[in-house]
């Protein structure tokens, strides 16, 4: 490939094409016409000497070469953005985008704490916030997010990650206000006969606290409902006998919006606290936009 033929705009289109696997959707996302995207794809196929996208029965699929390109493309574009920002970054005038991922319980508290400061210090910066269930560190490793807010710990294989502690969270048991255990001092014996709702973000089949019950010799905890997100917890809890185990600050929000209460788990379960942290990848460690954001977050106090 002759680099003189390479247009940065083509790489931006290529990134979107590989993510969308769809010409019309790419055109819509980038605000371009479908014929323009088709012409760009033709140029890209010539440049890379590969079809990149192959039409299949259910749409387009990536070729092996396209899959390989996709792994590096986000990093390359992020480095270009960093190069530009190093020369021009000023929070008052910057129009950069900061991409954040976190599940609702953590993200709600995080955003509530920092959003006012961001708007005052950097009125033209865009915060792109993603709370859709997925593996916690996947977007960070692929270069599709600048920061992840999570109480999970990365696997040893997920290297090159930096971490900044944010706050400690404890957990509550959310149940209907008229639940048989409402307003009672809870015990393991009482709970082992109850039904729990499970938050199964990544397809987990066991209740989050199942191992705590198992340590006490109880391995038959009933979980008749599994949710892929947090949004229906309040509605389900107030209308059923299900109990949900959720972070305390999220429990407080649910209690304000639904006819439910939050009870403290029995000490015998040994649940304790969990630390929520801000994570970022090495590729963004020296990015001035991200450095500014980390410093802003570092100076905030998160009240759980």
Count of discrete alpha- or pi-helical segments spanning 4 or more residues: 11
Average of per-residue pLDDT values? 87
* C-alpha-based Rg, rounded: 23 Å
Number of strands: 12
Percentage of residues assigned to helices:
25-40%
What topology, given as strand order, has the largest sheet? Answer: 4-3-5-12-6
Name the overall outline. Answer: globular
Largest sheet: 5 strands, mixed
> pLDDT under 50 segments (min length 5)?
none
Compute the separation of the termini in Å: 54 Å
Q: What oligomerization state is this entry in?
A: single chain
SS-based class? alpha/beta
Name the beta content range: 15-25%
**SSE arrangement, N to C:** HHHEEHEHEHEEEHEHEHEHEEH
Which key phrases capture this entry?
alpha/beta, LysR substrate-binding domain-containing protein, 12 strands, five-stranded mixed β-sheet, 11 helices
Concise structural overview:
The protein is of the alpha/beta class and 304 residues long.
Structure description:
This protein is of the alpha/beta class. Helices cover about 40% and strands about 20% of the residues. The chain contains 11 helices and 12 strands. A hairpin with a 2-residue loop joins strand 1 and strand 2 (about 60). Helix 1 (about 10-20) packs across helix 4 (about 65-90). It is globular.
Protein topology:
Layout lengths: L7 H13 L2 H8 L3 H15 L4 E4 L2 E4 L1 H25 L8 E6 L1 H18 L4 E5 L7 H5 L4 E4 L10 E9 L1 E6 L11 H4 L3 E5 L10 H5 L7 E6 L5 H7 L2 E6 H10 L2 E4 L10 E8 L6 H11 L6
Helix pairs in contact: 1-2, 1-3, 1-4, 2-3
């Amino acid at each position: 490939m002759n680099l003189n033929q390479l247009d940065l705009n083509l790489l931006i289109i290529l990134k979107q094409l590989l993510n969308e696997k769809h010409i019309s959707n790419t055109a819509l996302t980038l605000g371009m016409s479908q014929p323009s995207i088709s012409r760009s794809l033709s140029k890209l196929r010539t440049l890379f000497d590969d079809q990149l996208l192959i039409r299949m029965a259910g749409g387009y699929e990536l070729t092996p070469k396209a899959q390989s390109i996709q792994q590096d493309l986000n990093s390359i574009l992020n480095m270009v953005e960093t190069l530009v920002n190093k020369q021009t970054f000023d929070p008052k005038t910057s129009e950069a985008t900061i991409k954040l991922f976190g599940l609702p319980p953590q993200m709600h508290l995080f955003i509530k704490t920092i959003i006012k400061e961001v708007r005052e210090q950097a009125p033209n910066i865009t915060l792109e916030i993603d709370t859709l269930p997925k593996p916690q560190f996947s977007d960070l490793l692929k270069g599709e997010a600048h920061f992840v807010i999570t109480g999970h710990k990365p696997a040893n294989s997920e290297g090159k990650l930096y971490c900044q502690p944010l706050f400690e969270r404890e957990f509550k048991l959310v149940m209907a206000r008229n639940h048989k255990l409402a307003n009672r001092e809870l015990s393991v014996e009482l709970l082992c006969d109850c039904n729990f709702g499970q938050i199964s973000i990544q397809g987990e089949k066991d209740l989050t606290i199942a191992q705590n019950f198992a340590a006490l010799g109880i391995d038959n905890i009933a979980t008749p409902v599994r949710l892929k997100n947090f949004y229906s917890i309040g509605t389900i809890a107030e209308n059923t006998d299900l109990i949900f185990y959720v972070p305390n600050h999220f429990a407080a929000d649910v209690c304000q919006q639904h006819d439910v209460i939050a009870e403290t788990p029995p000490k015998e379960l040994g649940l304790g606290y969990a630390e929520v942290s801000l994570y970022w990848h090495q590729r963004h460690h020296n990015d001035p936009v991200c450095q500014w954001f980390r410093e802003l977050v570092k100076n905030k106090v998160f009240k759980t």
